[in-house]
Design a protein that fits this description.
- By secondary structure, the protein is of the alpha+beta class.
- About 45% of the residues lie in helices and about 20% in strands.
- It is an enzyme of class 2 (transferase).
Length: about 1000
């Protein structure tokens, strides 16, 4: 009951918000407290404090403990408010009265109490709830000085306590050692971490998915006896039962699933509670890139906690945390396996190098020995040209043997089988003799060899064959990159080290390259030198030789001034393995052969005197061919092959070739790719960029074989491309063909004036057609746009009638309105597609460089609702950056992906795969394809309903549909738009499909 009372002389009841008003209007006369005017001063004071406080407070007064409280405590009471006002405390808190009674007794003894975050199971929200309250009870005296009431200040800590408990569980999961190699151990650790929070999870069982997703098997549990409850130990995922259907649903959806289970007679763990839970959750442990989990946590939920958004997010975080860490562990394990596989591959590569190097030596011996016998015969009938060919063959066979020996040394070091034999050596004499082998070739190049050596160096133990290779490799490198000046060899003693320095006045090394000079297979790019040839393992190999001597090697360099390579090895033998110190001397024959190989290779780098060929004679008007190669033997060979058919001029590198082109433009350029100063690619680019020389055909030669290398050669703009070794007949044929083709092009240029006039007329006609097309497009756009306004009104008013007059309409009337609304929606879809189609017909085409990966990501984002709703999977590899009309291509991707999702087979999640590659025009089975052109081929494939192959052309027509409207919504314009977009980009579109297996749309765009 309520009673309006005046607050005259009742100022203690003023204010207090809603509860103040309720207290003032309450009929206190029907309670043991009586009229507020008669209340004792202690009660008035308590009420005044309560109404003016922002803290939850209440006072219980009198023998019956009548309750008075403020707004803040009213929120705490929940559904017990407002009935709790003026009620007995025992009636309000009947469910927890046994816990409160001892504290009330203490207050009656005039002793206050305080409890911090005490646990209660309350029913303040319509269900039993876990609540944590910090509160203090204080006695309040009456006018006679005896204890008449109980005053309480309290704080609801439930949210804080539960959040701290959740965070602690997540910390426990984070502390698990996820680097374990056994998933079984990890699952047991996860179960143990969850067992420490048996308030939120009275029990839990981890099921691992086995047999490629066909069964789930319990692998770890919490709770009494550490076993699974309610569900079987093994669950057949493809045959759900009443018990397991929720589990199977969680597996199929790969999402957290909540379920209510009414327990029957089975005794299940209760954790810290007095009753068992009837609410359960299935938490999937998801695998990256998979639509199904590889484990599921089945857990009972806190029976005194509502499964609200906060509790759901906590469970999801558990799944995400465990999934993340297990995926990381599996990735690390996969990387470890990959590293082991790479190590095995590396070992196999080393064995291969070793075996193949040995196998090469036998045929090389059978090549070299007969050649040497022929050359060393005192008398033979060889002509000068024959002798020159044999010398060239011998020289390159020796070079090949050097490469084989280098590979053999490299493989021995890789496998750890390289053993040095150290002998006491006069390092000064040995190094001086080795360097002297290079004097003739260095001086022939117009440079100076300087040898500086101490007369006496303390005893030095070296493997003489390794020392030879160290000296020869360093001298060979110095000669290759020194075009003028000198090369200096210094041998000195510095403290306890014997020091070798090779100093040159060559081109130098960029500072950024210095840290990488001794790395295997590293080569400095775009550097001037006598040649670009080499394996890239020479310096790394000699570093290994130096390390076997317990020494060190370094390099200092400055661009344009030269380089200094320094080798330091310890003096004496204390640092060397005693079992490898030998008394035998150097194998003279091995030393002679090694020096021959290095010196002869250096000799081939010298530019030979070809002045007789620099200014070609007029031999009956033969076409002039410019041969560009840094290898002298190759230049001589090409000249000898081509001389009978063409006039020949040679150049040592691309820069020299450009100078000769200025002197006399050739009919064709035949160039190696890898050369110093300016390589073949650079030469090609400069020739094609110059209008005066762009018409000259260029054929590139390279030692790199393979289809990929050919594609790279053609993509650089070369007219033709040949891989070494090549047939002489093929080379002559290709050169003649290119020259003939260029002559035909030149003759065709005479008709240019006439063609231009004709082109001008065509341009005028095209202009008129374009104008007409734009007018039609504009008309279609405006018409479609104007149709939308009345259509919107039809939709709006029909929906309003359905909303407001639904009860007054007959069933037939409702049916008419529903059919009208559906028809309007279909018309709206049709108009939108017509607008899109009209936009693709415009002549205003603004092409932009666009990353198709980013464009596709935008399309996926816009279609995300459809993708998620249908469990669609979209896979695509790297896509190129193309010059396109962005909004049109976005429309194209949207239509194709939306089609694939729409035409999915029942119960088969759509899988859309987008691939990209470069293809030749001649491989495209379409009459509009240009055979000589390359195309980007973008394929969009799905696993949907597909179509009969006989309709592969028909589906691109306007309003063409292969399915009825009742089966699939749509206007039949989507693929027509796609075709128009591709045609606007001068491309080609085609389709292929198989019924009930899927369809693939192929886009071909000029590369």
């Amino acid at each position: 009951m309520e009673k309006n009372i005046s607050i005259t002389n009742l100022d203690f009841l003023s204010g207090g918000g809603d509860m103040g008003k309720r207290i003032r209007n309450f009929d206190w006369g029907n309670t043991p407290l009586g009229d507020p005017e008669t209340w004792e001063q202690g009660l008035k004071t308590c009420v005044r404090i309560i109404l003016t406080s922002a803290q939850p407070m209440f006072v219980w007064w009198g023998p019956s403990l009548i309750s008075i409280y403020n707004d803040q405590y009213a929120h705490f009471l929940g559904v017990k408010h407002p009935a709790a006002l003026g009620a007995k405390a025992e009636d309000i808190w009947r469910e927890i009265w046994d816990l409160l009674l001892p504290k009330i007794k203490s207050v009656e003894q005039n002793e206050g109490t305080y409890d911090d975050s005490m646990l209660f199971i309350m029913e303040r929200k319509g269900y039993q709830e876990e609540v944590y309250v910090s509160f203090c009870y204080s006695p309040v005296p009456g006018d006679d000085g005896t204890m008449k009431g109980l005053f309480c200040v309290c704080t609801d800590n439930t949210e804080r306590v539960i959040n701290e408990r959740s965070l602690q569980t997540l910390r426990e999961l984070g502390a698990i050692a996820f680097d374990e190699k056994s998933l079984q151990i990890i699952y047991q650790n996860v179960a143990e971490a969850l067992s420490k929070n048996n308030k939120d999870f009275p029990f839990a069982t981890v099921y691992k998915i086995e047999n490629t997703g066909r069964i789930a098997e319990a692998t770890a549990s919490t709770g009494a006896n550490n076993k699974q409850y309610l569900l079987p130990a093994v669950i057949a995922l493809d045959a759900p039962t009443m018990e397991t259907r929720d589990f199977c649903q969680a597996y199929d959806s790969n999402k957290l699933t909540f379920a209510e289970i009414v327990t029957q007679d089975q005794e299940i763990p209760k954790g810290e509670w007095q009753k068992a839970s009837t609410n359960f959750v299935y938490i999937p442990i998801t695998a990256v890139g998979s639509s199904h989990p590889y484990a599921i946590i089945f857990a009972a939920l806190n029976p005194y906690r509502l499964f609200d958004n906060s509790f759901k997010q906590f469970c999801e975080l558990i799944g995400e945390r465990v999934s993340l860490e297990i995926n990381k562990m599996l990735a690390i394990e996969e990387e470890r396996k990959r590293a082991e596989e790479l190590e095995q591959i590396d070992k196999a590569k080393t064995v291969f190098f070793s075996n193949i190097s040995h196998e090469f030596r036998t045929p090389l011996t059978l090549i070299l020995n007969p050649l040497e016998e022929l050359l060393n015969q005192p008398t033979n009938n060889l002509s000068a040209i024959e002798r020159q060919n044999i010398e060239t063959t011998h020289r390159n066979a020796v070079r090949l043997l050097k490469l084989v020996n280098t590979l053999l040394d490299f493989s021995r070091i890789e496998s750890g089988r390289q053993q040095a034999s150290y002998t006491l050596t006069d390092l000064v004499a040995l190094t001086t003799n080795l360097a002297a082998n290079f004097r003739a070739v260095i001086e022939k190049a117009g440079m100076q060899l300087i040898i500086k050596a101490d007369t006496v160096i303390q005893p030095v133990y070296v493997d003489r064959q390794m020392w030879e290779k160290i000296v020869f490799n360093l001298l060979s490198n110095a000669f290759k990159y020194t075009l003028a000046g000198s090369i200096t060899v210094e041998v000195t003693a510095e403290g306890k080290y014997a020091v070798l320095k090779i100093i040159d006045t060559g081109v130098g090394i960029p500072q950024a390259e210095l840290p990488h000079m001794f790395e295997r297979f590293h080569r400095v790019q775009h550097v001037t030198g006598r040649t670009f040839e080499g394996t890239g393992i020479g310096l790394s190999l000699i570093k290994e030789f130096v390390l076997l001597h317990k020494g060190e090697i370094g390099v200092e360099s400055e661009l344009g001034k030269g380089s200094t390579f320094t080798v330091r090895i310890p003096i004496g033998k204390a640092h060397l393995p005693q079992q490898q110190i030998m008394m035998n001397d150097l194998n003279e024959q091995e030393g002679i052969l090694t020096s021959t190989m290095f010196v002869e290779e250096a000799g081939t780098l010298l530019v030979r005197n070809n002045k007789v060929n620099d200014v070609p004679a007029d031999r009956n008007g033969l076409p002039l061919v410019l041969v560009v190669d840094d290898n002298a033997d190759m230049r001589d060979h090409l000249r000898s092959v081509l001389m009978p058919h063409f006039e020949i001029v040679t150049a040592n590198n691309g820069q020299e070739a450009l100078q000769k082109i200025q002197q006399q433009p050739p009919s064709l350029i035949l160039s190696d790719i890898m050369m110093p100063v300016l390589d073949g690619i650079g030469l090609l680019q400069q020739v094609k960029a110059n209008k005066a020389t762009a018409h000259i055909p260029v054929i590139l030669l390279t030692a790199r074989a393979g289809e990929e290398s050919k594609i790279v050669g053609w993509e650089t703009g070369a007219d033709d491309y040949l891989t070494k070794p090549f047939s002489s007949k093929e080379l002559i044929s290709r050169i003649a063909s290119q020259i003939k083709t260029q002559q035909i092009r030149t003759e065709a240029m005479t008709d240019i004036a006439e063609q231009r006039n004709y082109a001008k007329k065509l341009e005028e006609m095209n202009g008129e057609l374009t104008k007409m097309n734009e007018e039609l497009t504009s008309f279609a756009y405006v018409s479609s746009h104007d149709l939308q306004e009345p259509l919107r009104k039809i939709q709006m008013f029909s929906k309003r009638i359905l909303e407001k007059e639904i009860n007054s309409l007959s069933d037939e009337g409702k049916n008419f309105f529903y059919r009208m609304d559906n028809a309007a929606s279909r018309m709206q879809l049709l108009i939108n597609d017509l607008l899109a189609y009209s936009r693709t017909n415009t002549s205003k085409k603004h092409f932009e460089k666009t990353d198709l990966n980013l464009l596709l990501a935008e399309v996926k984002q816009e279609l995300m609702e459809k993708i998620i709703a249908t469990n669609s999977i979209i896979e695509y590899g790297p896509l190129p950056v193309l010059s396109i009309i962005p909004f049109q291509f976005k429309q194209l991707f949207t239509n194709l992906i939306a089609n694939s999702i729409k035409f999915a087979r029942p119960d088969v999640p759509p899988r859309i795969t987008i691939k990209c590659e470069v293809v030749d025009g001649q491989k495209i089975d379409k009459p509009t394809a240009v055979a000589e052109r390359k195309y980007w081929k973008i394929s969009v494939a799905d696993n949907g309903t597909g179509f009969d192959p006989k309709f592969s052309e028909q589906i691109f027509g306007l309003f063409q549909r292969l399915h009825g409207r009742r089966d699939y919504e749509g206007t039949g314009i989507g693929l027509a738009i796609a075709k128009k977009v591709v045609e606007n980009h001068n491309g080609i579109i085609s389709a292929e499909g198989i019924e009930n297996e899927g369809a693939t749309i192929h886009l071909y765009l000029p590369a």
